[in-house]
Amino acid sequence: MTQAEWIVLCLCAVAALLHGLSGFGFPMMSTAVLSSQYPLSLAVTLVIFPCLLLNLLMLNADPRHSLLQSIRYYLKHYWPLILSSLIGSLLGVKLLLWLNEGYLKLLLGTVIIFYVLDQLRSKPFQSNPHILSMVCFGLLAGVIGGATNAMAPFLMMYLLSSQLSKTDIVIISNLNFIVSKLIQLLLLFPILIQINPQQQSILIGITIFALIGVWIGGKIRHRLSQRHFKFLVLGLLMVLGIQALWQSTALLQHSNHLFLN
């Protein structure tokens, strides 16, 4: 592997560590790293398999329940959020193929930053996890996630506003991520089977480094208080929001057409 590829793997490991800490971040950060060397559609494709493995590991975040017990419990209580994110992901992957990514990034960054600033107020926005709110946020998170690999910000905004525990947030978010990744895998499978041997090596390397990173992050997360967990998530969201705005500026300078040719 080249030096640049080793740097990519190390950055993906850092992204996985942060994912283990906060329950999100790996898809967005790893996609951002890979998209500097590959087209966005290929970058998204390369992280699908590692993401699925990481998300499955994160479902074990609750030491009181087994993997299957956690899946059954959270599917029963949060199925509207998961189902709507599935539908949104289908639409989002289609957007990836025909809509200018710059406008999606602009929307993403703007909403994230407004949300983080709101959460720093003495009386921030709060939401109750009822069916209508889950459907609305699930659709929005799915569309953005399918198109840009950035489902997490909208999802985390909703879950934090619902005043859920850090364990609930981690498991619910990763269940949604699994749904999104399965949709991406289905629709981007033609790209996946055409990757060359060098890209296959990158895929294997990302998977190994990501598993190590998320394991370390999970160990650290168990020592975090709920308050520290919230501020960690808000900090990551702010960074991702600024990054999305920066990327949108560059993309729109290159082409400001709403639709791809």
UniProtKB/TrEMBL annotation:
Stated family: Belongs to the 4-toluene sulfonate uptake permease (TSUP) (TC 2.A.102) family.
Entries under Pfam families matching the protein: TauE
Membrane-spanning parts: 39-57, 78-99, 131-159, 171-193, 199-217, 229-246
Protein name, entry field: Probable membrane transporter protein
Lineage top rank: taxon: Bacteria
Keyword terms of this UniProt record: Cell membrane, Membrane, Transmembrane, Transmembrane helix, Transport
Keyword Cell membrane applies: yes
The species this protein was found in: Acinetobacter schindleri NIPH 900
Cellular component GO terms held in the UniProt record: plasma membrane
Subcellular location: Cell membrane
Membrane protein topology class: Multi-pass membrane protein
